[in-house]
Specification:
single chain; alpha/beta; Rossmann fold; 20% strand; globular
Amino acid sequence: MLNMLLNRPLVFQALGWLNRRKVFVDTVFVAYPASEAYALSYVYPRHLHLMRWRPWLAGLLWQNGKWGLMFVIASTEADFRDSENKENLRQLVNEMEQIRQRVGAAQKTFAGILPGVLFATRLVRETPEIDVTVEAVVQAEAQVRSAESYDDRTPVILLGGHGFVGRRLATRMAGREIYRVDVAAQQDAGWPEHLQGRKAIIINVTRNAVLSEYIGRFWSELVLLNEVYPEPSAAEVAALAAVGSRAYHVVGVTGQAYPAFPKAYAGGIPCCAGRMDKDLTAVIRQLA
């Protein structure tokens, strides 16, 4: 009913008229479900097909004095990687750009792997999500080191280190002892066996489900910081606990969502929904 009433050009234009006089809406954001359980946090099953590619208004975000509008689509990562859906992606980007302009927001952002997919297919030229994500992960890694009493000489393994986020994170963390591990890379793809038994932090910024391929190589002093959506499964967390490895998850950045995000993302707003400012603060949660 709310989408029938509010998800309309005239409503967004009216909001934009107010917003241009006193800026209070700064972001429009698109999320997508990791699974049907996530999707059903926002929509009834009978409506899923209606929002496959058309963004539905799903909530509000609040970060450091500014609001954001959150939209949700029902498509999944498999759909985004399918080359036959490029035109659907183009229409999604165009619709969100129209909404951004009507509302007068400074940025539009996309969740999960969408920024990388859209950038690679040249459907967007700017990726503000990545700047926020990299800053949040750097802060989160420092929080993990503090919680574990590890110092700043602790080696870092970047799982997905040659990917869209991983490359930028490696540049940002230059000067640290960093090992870039990536199942898709041809060079530097080897696991750093010589770190076995040493204190180390592994930051997961690769694709969903890749983590499980490496858990068998973990040791008790290796601590996981997960940034991948969704959070590690219960089975993965149990496997880490079995070898004595602690696991932390990047919830996002400090802020409020109405309604709150489900599961491990409750208590903040996703990095990809945030905006850069001097008060940006990462939020993490210990899983094991």
